Amino acid sequence: MYLLWMLACATAPAAPPQTPTAPHAVQKTDAEWRAALSPESYGILRQKDTERAFSGSYWNHHDAGTYLCAGCGQPLFTSEDKFDSGTGWPSYTRPASADAVEVEVDRSYGMSREEVLCHRCGGHLGHVFDDGPPPTGRRYCINSGALTFQASAP
Ligand SMILES: [Zn+2]
What we know:
By secondary structure, the chain is α+β, with helices and mostly antiparallel strands.
């Protein structure tokens, strides 16, 4: 895939850049991802599955700490930005840092949604919507299975 993309760029230098513009820092083959992740996390991160609402580990989780990418360990969200959305998925008003995630338009299932991906490994995390609470008005709706949790030091 990557080679083809390079080739396409080489033959069409005037084309606007694709997003993401750079390869992800963490690159693994499909077999490596499958071996490294639980079946549930593999399905979400690498095959864009969505866990059932109210089924994951973190929708009703209120400890203080940081939520990391289950694929690569990158800090993605913090408990300070987490809120109870009532959807059954962990929800945040913003990522832990501006470059923790990337957002792409997802036109699957006949909808136009904003897909949230880990900036470091490209893993699928969930979607972001514009019906969140202050201060951002954004609702990052994330699959628990894409995350691991690291509690703050007491
Ligand atoms: Zn990641």
